[in-house]
Amino acid sequence: MSDWVLKGTDVSRWYGDGEVRVHALNGVSFEICPGEFVVVLGPSGSGKSTLLNLLGGMDSASGGELLYGEKNLSEMTALELSSYRRDVVGFVFQFFHLIPTLTAKENVELASSITPGSRSADEVLEMVGLAERKEHFPAQMSGGEQQRVSIARAIVKNPSILLCDEPTGALDSKNSLAVVKLLLDVRDQIGCPVVTITHNAEMAKVADRVFYMKDGQIIRVEKNEHPLKAEELLW
Ligand SMILES: Nc1ncnc2c1ncn2[C@@H]1O[C@H](COP(=O)(O)OP(=O)(O)OP(=O)(O)O)[C@@H](O)[C@H]1O
C-alpha cells in the first residue's frame, strides 16, 4: 500500500495559448498522505482553487502527473473521473450549495443515494450535531448549521479524501471555529485526509502540513510538529 492518497509530480495547468497563456499552476509536486490535515494558504490568484479543482477531478492538468493509487487522473475517461468525484472525493464549499427545496436530511440522502457503500444520513447528521434539525430546510438554518449539513453531505459517502474551498469564508468567528473543530473530528473519525483552502492564516495552526502558494507554485511546505486544537485558535 502506498504511503500517500494522492501524489502530484510537476503538475501544471495553463489556460489559453501563445502570448495570452496564463499559468495558473506551474509544475507543482506534492503528496497528500492518509489521515493528514493540509491547509493551503496563498494570496488571491496564486493557484489554490486550481489545485483543489485538479485534486477533486473537476478539472484536468495540462501537464505532469496526478496519481490516485495507480491511476493518473489526467488519463481517466470522463466516466472514470465521474466515478472518482462521486465515490472518492467529498467536497465542502464556501457557500454550502445546499438544495433549498430539500430538508437537511434530504440534502444528505441525495448524496448517499448515488454512492454505493454510503453511511446513513441519520448517522452523519448526528456526527455533525444536527440530529434535532434534520427536518429543517436550509433557509431555516444559520450559516454555521448549513455548513454542518454540507459537511454531512460530503462525509456520508465515506470519502477517501475531503476537499474544502474556504469552508469558513462565509461564517463568523464562533461558527468558523466550530467548523474547523468538526473538520478535525471528521478526519479523526473517518480517517480520510482533509485538504482545505483558506485565507485565514490562523487556521494553518491546526494543520499537520501547510502548503504556501505563490504565482502558481507551492513555494514552501511547513510541517507542524504540534498542531493546535481548534479550541486553542485565536480567530
Ligand atoms: N478558466 C480560467 N481561464 C483563465 N485564467 C484562469 C482560469 N481560472 C483561473 N485562472 C487564472 O489562474 C490563476 C490562479 O487562479 P486560482 O483561482 O487558482 O487562484 P486562487 O489562489 O484560488 O485565488 P482566490 O484566492 O482569489 O480564489 C489566476 O491568475 C486566475 O486568473
UniProtKB/TrEMBL annotation:
Pfam families: ABC_tran. Keywords: ATP-binding, Nucleotide-binding, Transport. Signal peptide: none annotated. GO terms for molecular function: ATP binding. InterPro entries: AAA+_ATPase, ABC_transporter-like_ATP-bd, ABC_transporter-like_CS, MacB-like_ATP-bd, P-loop_NTPase. Residues 6-233 form the ABC transporter domain. Belongs to the ABC transporter superfamily. This is ABC transporter ATP-binding protein. It comes from Hominiventricola aquisgranensis.
